[in-house]
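User: Here's a structure from my thesis project, written as structure tokens. My advisor, Dr. K., wants to see whether a designed sequence matches the one we expressed. Can you design one independently, without my sequence as a hint?
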């Protein structure tokens, strides 16, 4: 999956294949050893809450904060492996290739905003319901209404997040065209993935923080509405993921 994603954007020639596969292998090994145990502990802690008295608002905020920390740790840990790949893609032709492929992908994403607004929101609601039912089981009409209200409040029909994505992608290509050293690329990746406001200003961080605050609001309203069966389903699913992660982490 990682290789397919990489090949979507990078110009992978015959001379790049072995080095790319080696870095992906090292990335996966690091992720299994360092991050999966952390995810497993997190899921187990949430499973216990589901089986117990449930969540209050403070616990939801703590859960979201832990999620953000794990995402940041994953990004920082992955940066050296990303840098070892990108250092081979700083020539003009390879940087141009990245820009072209990123523009193609962004253009395809923008096609969503050509649809009627009501259809866009309905699609966003359906996607969220599908994703959450993987954890909670079948949602009630009331719970789907919570999701619908959340989407209608936060949905941005202007596609502003794509404009931010475009800025980030263009800056990455601009940086690669300076032919940086691998350590410089590693530093850049860490900042770009964890503190992008250093590149793009406080407005970016404010928007990201607002998004996470809205997610916390959604989770609080949903998870405090779960009935006994849904909480048992959630606990079982989370614990199942936790067990799988521990097994993968310990796999030779």
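Assistant: Designed independently from the structure alone:
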């Amino acid at each position: 999956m990682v290789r397919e994603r990489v090949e979507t954007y990078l110009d992978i020639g015959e001379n790049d294949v072995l080095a790319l596969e080696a870095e992906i292998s090292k990335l996966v090994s690091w992720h299994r050893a360092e991050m999966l145990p952390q995810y497993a502990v997190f899921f187990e802690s949430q499973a216990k809450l589901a089986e117990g008295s449930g969540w209050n608002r403070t616990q939801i905020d703590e859960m979201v904060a832990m999620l953000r920390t794990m995402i940041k740790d994953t990004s920082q840990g992955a940066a050296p492996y990303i840098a070892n790949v990108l250092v081979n893609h700083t020539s003009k032709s390879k940087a141009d290739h990245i820009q072209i492929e990123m523009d193609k992908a962004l253009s395809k994403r923008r096609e969503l905003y050509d649809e009627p607004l009501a259809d866009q929101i309905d699609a966003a609601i359906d996607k969220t319901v599908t994703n959450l039912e993987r954890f909670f089981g079948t949602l009630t009409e009331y719970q789907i209404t919570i999701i619908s209200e959340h989407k209608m409040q936060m949905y941005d029909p202007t596609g502003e997040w794509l404009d931010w994505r475009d800025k980030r992608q263009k800056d990455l290509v601009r940086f690669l065209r300076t032919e940086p050293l691998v350590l410089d690329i590693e530093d850049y990746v860490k900042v770009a993935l964890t503190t992008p406001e250093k590149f793009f200003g406080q407005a970016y961080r404010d928007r990201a923080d607002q998004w996470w605050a809205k997610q916390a609001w959604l989770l609080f309203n949903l998870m405090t509405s779960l009935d006994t069966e849904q909480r048992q389903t959630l606990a079982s699913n989370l614990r199942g993921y936790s067990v799988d992660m521990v097994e993968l982490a310990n796999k030779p």
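When you compare it with your expressed construct, this may help: Residues 14-51 form the longest helix (38 residues).
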